[in-house]
Amino acid sequence: MEKIFAKFWERKEESYLTLSVKLHEQNEEAIEKIHSIQKRIIDNFRRTIIFYNPYNSKGLFQYAFDRFHFSLINFFTFHYNFEKFKELVRKDRNYKEIQKIIIKIINKNLPSETKAEIKTLYNGGGSVIDSFTLQIFPLEKFLNKLSVLENKLNEINENLINDFCKNYKCDKIFEIKAYSKNNSQYFPINILRFINSKDEEYLREIIGDDMDKINDIVTEVNNELSSNPLRLNIHKINLLESDPFLYKWEKIKGFNLVRQ
What's this model's pTM, rounded to 2 decimal places? Predict the structure, then answer.
C-alpha cells in the first residue's frame, strides 16, 4: 500500500480584507452536513491531535462551524498577524477612505441572492495531503455579476491605494478568488488542515492506520456529493478583516442579497 504523508501548513503572518461568505449565515442544514463530513474524516484519526485553535498546537486543525467560509474577493493581503494588523493599519486614514469607497461600490453593484452547490471534497487525491477542502459552485449569473463588481472595484484611484500600501507590508489584490474546473468556477471552503507549530514546512509520515483509509473516505463522500450535491442559497455576504483561518476576524459591513 502506498504510504500517505501529511504536509504540514506553515502558519502565515498574514491578515486580509475580503468580501466573504460565512456559511452559517446561509443555511443550518448545510452546516450540519459539512460537520458530518468533517466527523467522517476525523473519526479516522485515532493518533493525530485534533484542535480548534490554529495558534497553540500542531496536528489537524478543525474549523469550527461558525468559521466555515469562502472568500469571493480578496482586496488586500497584509503581512502582519491580526493583532499587529489592528495596531498598525486600522486607524490609517487612507485605509478608512478605501473601505468607504469599496462599500459604496459594492452597494451599487450588489449581486442577487444565488443558489449554489457543494459538489466536491478535495484533498489532493494523492500520497501527500495538507488539507480537506469543499468546492462550492454558485450559478453563472452570480459569477458574472461578481465580475462586474470586480471591474468597478479596480477603478478605485490607484494613487490612493499606492499611498496607503507604501506605508505597510501590503499587497493589493482586488481579484475574485474563484478557480476553474470542468468549465465551471468554484470557491474553496477549508474544513480541516494540517498545521505545524514550527515556522517551517515539512513532510511527515503519519504513523499507524490514521491515513490508510483517507482517500477511500474522500472518494465515498465525492460519490455521494455527485449524486446529491449539498445545495444552499447565498443570501448574505460580508466585508471582513481576518487572519488566514477566520479564527480572528471582525466584520466591517454586511450586505443582504435578497431583493426587497
Answer: 0.93
